[in-house]
Fold each of these.
Amino acid sequence: MKTDDEGRAGLLYGIGAYGMWGLVPLFWPLLKPAGAIEILAHRMVWSLVFVGLALLALRRWGWIRELVRSPRKLGMITVAATVITVNWGLYIWSVNTGHVVEASLGYFINPLVTIALGVLVLKERLRPAQWAAVGVGFAAVLVLAIGYGRPPWISLTLAFSFAVYGLVKKKVNIGGLESLAAETAVQFLPALGYLVWLGTQDTLVFGTAGAGHTALLAATGIVTAVPLVCFGAAAIRVPLSTLGLLQYLAPTFQFLLGVVYFHEAMPAERWAGFALVWLALTLLTWDALRTARQSRAEVEAAKAAVVAGAGANAADAPVPATPPARAGG
């Protein structure tokens, strides 16, 4: 019963995390007239404040000592902070300049880019269905490049930056809140310095557009951290295959917002490109689910073999002789 409850809770946390990430395009336009870089700087500063308060409440500080003692991990955290800065900044700019659909494409093709990085960087071997998915994804990018009249650079930059971020995070291997705290600590001083510089130029929007707008800029920290907390809660409660399916919620919501709410154009060639991307993701999902089923079946077969072997060994074991009764008491 407890396992079922944990599974349901994990599913809800996962839906909440990816749902919030999917609906975040509705938030960034509320922060205008602040520019994308100012919004990005606020996101960095207020994320550290929010995450710092959360870690203070949870009393989770032991990881800092270990991180400081590892120059390699510190270097990788710096790389992670750099690539996620590119990702965050470009995404905010894309949403606020009318490129929500192209931004959503970046997160649709991110799994394909992650697989490609696995082959190129980690020397992983792909199964035939994964090769087919990568090939279809490459064809989709070509179709979209022809449709846009240029490579879909927003999508590709978002996909590659997030894939590299995921690869680095895998190497660092620290918790979600802790990782965000470390990354935003790296970002904090440059971001704060930029905001101070804007103030000296009289171009800082923070505090000039009303209390509500100021509160929204400060809330960028909450908007950044809360989905991450929900994702962390989901990751320890549901299977990886379930998370793999849930990850498509965010770009699906973003795509629908771009088409239905923001009324972005979707000519035939763009539909064709997206259809190829969705075909590639269908191949990936089918292959992942099939592989997960096969792995579970192999584990169950191995367990059954062990149990059967133990039973046979017990049956074949010699029965110890009954010791003769001793005379007397």
Amino acid sequence: MSPSHPAPFGLVPGTAGSPVLLHVPHSSRTVPHDVREGILLDDEALESELDRITDSHTADLAARASAACASTPWRFVNGLSRLVVDPERFPDSREEMLAVGMGAVYTRTTLREPLRPPGADPQPLLDRWFHPYARAMTAAVDERLAATGRAVVIDVHSYPSAALPYELHGAGPRPPVCLGTDGFHTPPGLLARAEAEFARFGGTGLNSPFPGTYVPLKHYGRDARVSALMIEIRRDLYMTEPGGPAGPGLGMLASALAALVDWLTDE
């Protein structure tokens, strides 16, 4: 059951001198009661949609990686499902996923079926959940900049082994690990190191099926001290799809992520 007043997000402190911020935006299945009332799906259909849309076990992955690091990174974890709001979307017309009803507030499901009533006003959800999240994430990046002179946002995601109807780039490659980059914020050295650390899982790919990475709008395209990389892990590497338990791959992936974080901290 979805709680009435869940914690919308949380910053888990790391070592004071660490520049690394592990961002986990899509790991939760929690939908508050009052938000649930505005969703058209019945309970069974909602659970199936959560299976498909949730990056299951990624919060655990980030926690395990953090525990294995020589210098603990900071973690910013979303406590709500992306069916409430998706904090990684642009909140305006720049967002390409608006084409399939999946902007900052989703109106369609992964199967392109109606999620919310026609004409539902997204603004209350943006004001209540999206904008506070964005402000808190911006503050977390600013704190790393103030403490260390740089910030590295590692976006931790997963994706299904088979494309879903909502995907705009689902016809492209689906490598074991997809690395999402930004031309301004992803340095070549960071990308190369990530490729090396995750190569043992069967190889990596670039920006397919999901491109880009998360940077707060305050810093986006402006502050080169903020580096960023998205790590999209194909779910069959570490869990039973679509929404089942994690397997031994989770621990091995956490070790690879920890090695990347340690390299970033020492860089």
